[in-house]
Amino acid sequence: MSGNTFGTLFTLTSFGESHGPALGAVVDGCPPGLALSEADLQGDLDRRKPGQSRYTTQRREGDQVRILSGVFEGKTTGTPIGLLIENTDQRSKDYSNIKDLYRPAHADYVYDRKYGFRDYRGGGRSSARETAMRVAAGGIAKKYLREHLGVEIRGYLSQLGDIELPMKDLSAVNENPFFSADPDKVPELEAYMQALIKEGNSVGARVSVIASGVPVGLGEPIFDRLDAELAHALMSINAVKGVEIGDGFAVVAQKGTEHRDEMTPEGFLSNHAGGILGGISTGQDIIAHLALKPTSSLRIPGRSINRQGDAVTVETKGRHDPCVGIRATPIAEAMMALVLMDHLLRHRGQNGTS
Amino acid sequence: MSGNTFGTLFTLTSFGESHGPALGAVVDGCPPGLALSEADLQGDLDRRKPGQSRYTTQRREGDQVRILSGVFEGKTTGTPIGLLIENTDQRSKDYSNIKDLYRPAHADYVYDRKYGFRDYRGGGRSSARETAMRVAAGGIAKKYLREHLGVEIRGYLSQLGDIELPMKDLSAVNENPFFSADPDKVPELEAYMQALIKEGNSVGARVSVIASGVPVGLGEPIFDRLDAELAHALMSINAVKGVEIGDGFAVVAQKGTEHRDEMTPEGFLSNHAGGILGGISTGQDIIAHLALKPTSSLRIPGRSINRQGDAVTVETKGRHDPCVGIRATPIAEAMMALVLMDHLLRHRGQNGTS
Amino acid sequence: MSGNTFGTLFTLTSFGESHGPALGAVVDGCPPGLALSEADLQGDLDRRKPGQSRYTTQRREGDQVRILSGVFEGKTTGTPIGLLIENTDQRSKDYSNIKDLYRPAHADYVYDRKYGFRDYRGGGRSSARETAMRVAAGGIAKKYLREHLGVEIRGYLSQLGDIELPMKDLSAVNENPFFSADPDKVPELEAYMQALIKEGNSVGARVSVIASGVPVGLGEPIFDRLDAELAHALMSINAVKGVEIGDGFAVVAQKGTEHRDEMTPEGFLSNHAGGILGGISTGQDIIAHLALKPTSSLRIPGRSINRQGDAVTVETKGRHDPCVGIRATPIAEAMMALVLMDHLLRHRGQNGTS
Amino acid sequence: MSGNTFGTLFTLTSFGESHGPALGAVVDGCPPGLALSEADLQGDLDRRKPGQSRYTTQRREGDQVRILSGVFEGKTTGTPIGLLIENTDQRSKDYSNIKDLYRPAHADYVYDRKYGFRDYRGGGRSSARETAMRVAAGGIAKKYLREHLGVEIRGYLSQLGDIELPMKDLSAVNENPFFSADPDKVPELEAYMQALIKEGNSVGARVSVIASGVPVGLGEPIFDRLDAELAHALMSINAVKGVEIGDGFAVVAQKGTEHRDEMTPEGFLSNHAGGILGGISTGQDIIAHLALKPTSSLRIPGRSINRQGDAVTVETKGRHDPCVGIRATPIAEAMMALVLMDHLLRHRGQNGTS
Q1: Which member of A32, A221, A346 has the closest CB to residue D349?
Q2: How would you label A245-282 residue by residue, b for 16+ Cβ within 10 Å and e otherwise?
Q3: Could you tell me if the ipTM is greater than 0.90?
Q4: Whether this model's pTM surpasses 0.90
Q5: CB contact, 8 Å: B318 with chain A?
């Protein structure tokens, strides 16, 4: 593969640039018989969509997904599912001034060096806009996992800057613009974000995702361990710089007696492992965390160079999220769903059971 | 793939159990003309090999690798390279008592549940013994990268328990049994480990890996980003629970102005990104960190169940590393080498240049 | 993969049903910098398009392809190329009568048995309509191969029923509705086809494809030999039941002295091998032949069963090609182009040269 | 992949040269619980082994296979199965005289041009010696298919030179050195072969393979159709120049009414399709035919060039099969078994049933 296909049996192949005519995807390998319509996917697309609050970019992207194939009389047929989102808000003029500049912390420089030139409109393929297709594709996997196995995948913002956001109530996540599972922290987050926007700066974030109801046995050691594939999937999201499973980096300072999850006939006594041992799901909740860097587009000027190698100053005027991590919650859920779905099918294939 | 092949153009396929007759691997896609002999691979195998100090397991594994194909008159031919290590120290009797037990934090339970039964001798396929083949295969990639591109890949132990080990001097790494790049900390580490062994406990660790000399342009967005593939590769190592690129989880609390690596005509002014932007190498050092959980085999008894679901107490008598993270340093280097090598070939393929 | 992606470095992923809203494809791995527009692809699409003569189906399919991504300012960017063809002529009513029938020699029965139900409109995914996307994608590969390597890929109809059509003049192929390289045979073909249409029957055909200018060295033994991948690609075309390279089945009765292509300092003295030895291109013309079965949809009634297992008689009323082999010529060219392109990139990747 | 791995869920990765120390393979994805020992694989290896009669090469290859992993207490564990055959009869001196020559119809020229140099001992990797590993791996698939699904895969020589060998009695195939299913033709074959050996020439052959008991539904359209994957697998065997499914090239001259396999409530009335429609198995016998070119190594001198481009005469003195097609029968069976096994697992994976 050349990098735009993910998965082995349940695959997502994606295309599209930020300011091209459309984004699209092919989801291949979906089992036949799943009831599916655009409405099933639109909910998560709307959660990811910008412009939902004053704390995310004010770009208006309709993000209306169309299913072009693979569904007949309301059910999946087992053939590939084509998905399309037309780009409706393409203000190319916002970006013409950066045509020859390399914005700091963006992919401008490396795309130019790798490919010889680049689609500079809104970051082209390197824009997080492509994650809309991940969310749509993940919605198919989520629906299958929920309806056929009772698996639920839920994400939340677990830290923004230095504000920690403990998981108090997952039902609150969709009730606030920050995907916070601690509704009491919302005022603090609002104050923080308003100051940040005023300052013209941005900040990092931590997102957590939990899958419950996952059966024992998913994951294919040694290289396609479930945790390794999750790390691949989550690290492939724009701006992610770190991935943890279970206790993650906290294990460095743990003793063996502290870390090991003991078992009794009633089940595990703890879940430091995050639901995965030896690369295979244990039946406990699967828990992953990801670290997202601060948005790279800032109103505060930064030093860089242009294509000719001259020193320049870059200052972003466009509409940007002050914290890209906020909208990453549904994306992380989608990527976890894709990994679990693919591994469910692989496990079935080799072991003949679901 | 069913999980035991890694890579797209430069691939490693691995087989072998801890106490089976042999471990083996096939390295496919190595460019022709690389001078290669067993001696080139043995050095890293010896670094990983147990029994090198009193702080690692006292099992004696010869770990002598044989090259069975793909090399003719001292040079690689472009055909697949077969590698074999015979297992010489197979004390199966050490393990018979755990045949029906699920050792806490081990893969015993999930292997039994996934496959219906398991090779219980020393963990079978789930043993870290298989990483010997990763080190051997990674040695081929390392040699090619060094000789053809000047890339150097160096790892070190950056934390053991709560002892932080800053990178002071990479040349010291192979001069102490801990792979510490801070030789002054060695006495503190020795004291810590002796206490740990006495206690019968284990501890986690953090390993860091740096690749210098990597050209700009490696990585295939959007799913096969270089960082995503590194995360996959590193998380697939036994006991790893977290992976970071560059500043990793520290980005959560960073502001955009703090994180972004500004550029001047002379180059980047910092490397918070860890050498990767938009999933593509920037030409700076590539920096990754991994968190390894404490060894699961402990002399201190733990609660668990047996295959019949009865409560049991598990106490490990065998020879085990009190900190598996120590020997992970050459393994992490090998996995980074495999990823870089594969992406070098993929980049050449699509872009027609090296 | 789940079957709808082809290739390793240069990949085609396809979706779409005969009577769904659209067909689409993602071409991933195209090198950057290739000048590309819809007009470059439309020519071959029009060659394949039905309704071009009275000897092919009278369905009117506009087959206007749109490029949705991967091209910027007229050149490929190295990112995936999204292609879309809207279906404009969807007469679903033609097909409602076959909803519960299994048409003989069609895929109706196996799709129902494999997936539990099927999109019965015009064969759904099993319709040859999907080959439009292969032709569009192959057009990209053809253009790259022509402009960067001087490779030309040309197909022709080499037999229709028992009328053999020797390769006399490749420039005549696009001048007659049969893709015959022997223009003198056209009247005989016309008479044959008119009788066939009157009879309500169909007939098989043989198509030949030649690639000239292919460099020495493409093909990856042992499983991804160039001939093996060509066989895969060509056999995947609807209705194909046989594939030959070079002398094909004639080699069975050949002696070694007769078959072997001797060499002199001026080059090969013959090309029985069809340009491939040991799975690797020799630099000679690559020659492949494929056998296509007669169209399965006939006006002459045939015995079959319905979904309930009852005996039924099936008679097709719709618009169908009396010989599907005729329109297969551009499809076969496209598949050969995809294979050569993929292997060019793979060879470059491993060997560092083009 | 770089060409030495075959399959998606059930994979074979192979290594080894004709005169290297050993051949080996990794079979990944075998379901757990299959009873397996070396003896299960040795039977087919002995059928393929040279030196079994005066009509095949007199090289003595022990071809004793060892299972190095993936089997515990007599049953497969679900982990990769390592296979090894040590090369015991390596008479390198036979080949030193061809070091700088390109033998006509061999892969010498293309390997040198592709890789820059080659292992010239007995053809190195391009030797048919590697097919021993395919036979061993195919034996695992055969056993699973037989025991779990009742699938039987049987091959026979269906033509040698111009002697057609109809399928009269499959039980006779292993009772004569030609794999002929028509025992009455054996004296004619013996006379033909003796004359051929005396002449110093070689001849082509046609091999047929039948799989009975295959369930409906295997095959993943559109690119991974069962017939397309079979074509890939069979064309990847050394010396194969053509592959047919069912009636193969005979369909070119067939009318639709003649070709279509009509159905009644009792089943299909014929099997022109060879058990595959729309790329999916129909439940009928799967029938494939392959054409193998005459052995390239001849005692009769032939014109060629050396590495320096000078004209030379090549005459082979070594031990060679006068008809490589004869020993191809077990290899073709093995490749069909690998394809069916892989598609069984893929079908199970996507459709959740076996």
Answers
A1: A346
A2: bbbbbbbbbbbbbbbbbbbeeeebeebbbbbbbbbbbb
A3: yes
A4: yes
A5: no
